[in-house]
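Hey, I'm writing a tutorial for new members on how sequence and structure tokens pair up, and I'd like a real worked example in the thread rather than a made-up one. If someone can provide the structure for the chain below, I'll link this post from the tutorial.
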Amino acid sequence: MNHTERRNHLRQILKGTQCLSPASVYDPLSARVAEAVGYQIGILAGSVASNTTLAAPDLIVLTLTEFAEQIRRITRASTLSLIVDADHGYGNALNVMRTIEELEHAGVSCMSIEDTALPIRYGQPEGKDELISTEEMVGKLRAAVAARRDPSLVIAGRTAALKVEDTARTVARVKAYAATGVDAIFIIGVESVDQVKAVHDAAKLPVIVGSAPASIRREDLAACGARIVLQGHQPVAAAVKALHETYSHLFNGGAPADLKSKIASAQDMDRLVNGENFKKWQREYLR
């Protein structure tokens, strides 16, 4: 499946009536595991990329080049329709155009550009988001749409307005973002389905929900125009815990055989890395 086919697959989901969740992936192997389970959509969050590529927190220290290279590895190794969180586009509107160019070439199916003021400024209160102006964000999104070369690429305008403003002001931002030609609205800070409905009614576009309280049913989100809802990045944390437990077991003198029930079999690993294909190519081409 080529990049355009993956993008069109995601567009069909956005045009549908269900609300689905992507697999949180962070490298080619995790993407292969997600595919084996049955996922067709994946997401690489900026925070996850920073954690797994640099072992650093989500403070915009990851560069666009590093992010694009990790995306390229994932899209080369899997057929997932990959959604990525492109943060603030790595700068102003001109930087956003470069970001679109690089990440489209890397194979993403959807990328979001957000209105959070990044990186965090000196003296900014801890844990408090600050937003750029609506006018600046509109310029970024217009630039993003103009920079796109494959019309099937999905561009989402992401807003954190619900975290710092009331619903009415959020809706005003969303209307302005929708008018730029983006394909979806990505919202974080959702606390009720009414907020999702207000955003969808204002934008007339599919909604991607960053997270939602456990009390909100997926069916209710779907009825309000949400087509994708994130579930967090538990697979990354699970992998970290499994690594820690395995390393601790072996470091403290535990026998490797004791881990048999907790690790992937050699056969499973061989399937994930396409071992049979490589064996075939060795037979056919190595002389």
